[in-house]
Amino acid sequence: MEEDKSIAELSKDVSDQFDADLFVFSGSVDNDSYGKLTAAVAAAKHSGSNNPAALLILTTNGGQANSAFQIARLFQNSYDFFVVCTPSYCKSAGTLIALGANILIMDTFSELGPLDVQLVKENEIAARKSGLLSRSALESLQESAFELFEHFMLRITLSSGGNVSFRIASEISAQMVSGLLSGVYSQINPEIVGSEFRDLNVALQYGFRLIEHSRNADFDTVHRLVHGYPSHDFIIDHDEVNELFERVLEPTNELYRLLGALSDNVYQEAIPNYVLYLEPHTNNVDEESETSSDADEQTIGEEDGQDAVKENKRTGVDKGGKRNRRRNRGKASSNGTSSSNSGSKAKSGPKS
Hints:
It is a single chain. The chain is of the alpha/beta class. It has helices at residues 7-18, 31-46, 65-78, 93-99, 133-159, 166-185, 190-214, 219-227, 238-244, 253-261, 263-266, 293-297, 308-315, and strands at residues 20-26, 53-59, 81-85, 89-90, 103-105, 111-112, 118-120, 128-130, 236-237, 248-249, 274-278, 337-339. Strands 10-5-3-2-1-11-12 form a seven-stranded mixed β-sheet, with helices on both faces. The protein is elongated, with a radius of gyration of 25 Å.
């Protein structure tokens, strides 16, 4: 029965639909996860797989922008086609990885987050703040200053019965606003504001570079993801993602079944980082002959598929710039099993 299929068989079904090596990543985007994914991709290549695509099942609250860029580039450089499936949430640095994908797979309950770098809080251990905070504070002060100036000027003009000229009322109002807000502005460190603005631009520039390869979004989308949302935890739902990205598909039934089988690790961020390569096997694999515990844990298996995504690979990735709003309701692909725990070092940077 369909319900009795193993993870091995479900993985094979999805793999056949996508012509893809299948990877799972749940956790924080950092040097450790980049190293594990590098080892997982190497394992896929050494296994003899010749699949042209990679499908990454991704669940994360974010992490380092540098590591996110490296992960996206890893898949872009290792495969002809890169697909990201987000079964639950994919925030911040995870959104940066998603910008590198040729196709996104999301359902109604999936969500992305703004591309907002996370910065270390001064004098606090293991605490972080949004890179948008200083900008939001300055915008709030600007609005408050203008509202106070307008309020004082109108009150002075009206209360004097017209005896105080507009020029004098403006000068008095400006002095009052300056006196009230000067103490607040004096606490703002220009170096910190400039540094945080620079770090936001790191995510912006990484995004620009990734979409040049993926062709799944434009510069306006990247700018909006960095600067267009009020808070780090703002939810960008399925409908809005369809407006931002060129190619967004819904999961196939086979992919839903696989996600359900992997639910403990793909519907919430894993701690510590969970990275998995599902190695492809044939239908008649003798599971009793498996000698490694990893192979027992992460099985593979069978075929059954549709190839709307394969058609997408042939026709959907245009090299031009116009947005194609007709969404292909496609199918997906991925593969077998084997887990990777080795890590490689990468330079850390602003978290996103």
